[in-house]
Amino acid sequence: MVNNALQVVAPGRAEIVQLEQPAPRAGEILLEIEAVTTCPHWDMHIYDGVPMFEDRPLSYPYTPGEPGHEAVGRVAAVGQGVEHLSVGQRVAAWRDPGGRRQGCYANFVCIDADHAIVVGDKLKASEIASLELAMCVQVSVDQLAEVGAIVGRSVAVAGLGAAGLIAVQMLRHAGAGKITAIEPDEGRHDLGRELGASNVIVPEELPEPDRFGKNAFHSALDTSGLKVSIEALMPRCLRAVSIFGVLREQVIFGSDQWWGGFSLIGYGEHNRNAAARALTSIREGGVKLDPLVSQTLPLAEYGRGVTCLKERRAIKVMFIPPGSTIDE
Prior knowledge:
Elements: E1 2-10, E2 13-20, E3 28-37, H1 40-48, E4 70-78, E5 90-93, E6 108-112, E7 116-118, H2 125-128, H3 131-146, E8 155-158, H4 162-173, E9 179-182, H5 189-194, E10 199-201, E11 217-222, H6 227-233, E12 237-243, H7 255-258, E13 263-265, H8 272-284, E14 293-298, H9 302-310, E15 316-320
Parallel strand pairs: 8-9, 8-11, 9-10, 11-12, 12-13, 14-15
Antiparallel strand pairs: 1-2, 3-4, 3-6, 3-15, 4-5, 5-7
């Protein structure tokens, strides 16, 4: 069968290319893609020709199917040694290992069988395709839970992009007390409240820096990765700030944070247990991914979708590969 795949051939230009249907190697499955959601910063960086990480220069044409990795579909074939998955099962990719020979913006892709998790048929594509992102956020939520910084606590979430909106829901589901979301784009405030934030403010409305004051947060989860955001949170949090967003700058950890039991927590490791917990929360209704999908487009309109992300007219875009039929 023909494997139609997206390929970013040059900055600002993407095409649908036809590849041979791949065959799964030992330990892999062949996944027939139903839908793929954007990982906004990855998509915008790659499409614009900007390295996601400074030490990883880009070259074009980019790897076919990349940077797509938040995918749901059905197992079309299994490689040697794969016994826990079978043809016809509906699965989602919960981990993106990077450096693959082909990404998920395609009809078919081979992935490590251990990086797929069975999701069943009850959830719509928009309700489960972003499981990989939910797993990633779950890792940071778990880190805060390990230091007793969630249950009954006042927790701040910096940024109401896709990750921040998931974080708000996960913290609420995990038993957080008051959740304050911090987001400069007031157009996203209502959705933040709808998904579980007790209060949503712009950065200018942050309380005065006083870790031990009555208005201080107990902890915070930063989804921006921005130095200015993290350094604004630290003097306003009693116990911990967990950094989810990709950090590209040096953050100053000073004497004010050195004492009083404060922790600045870097990102943890992707793991299947976090994926399973995220999936359980989704099935129970504690985490809803569907509200994050602002638009659904055919894969051939990839450039249009990325433009919507750049102009903040979409939180996430779900792309449907040629020939895929889904019930949305």
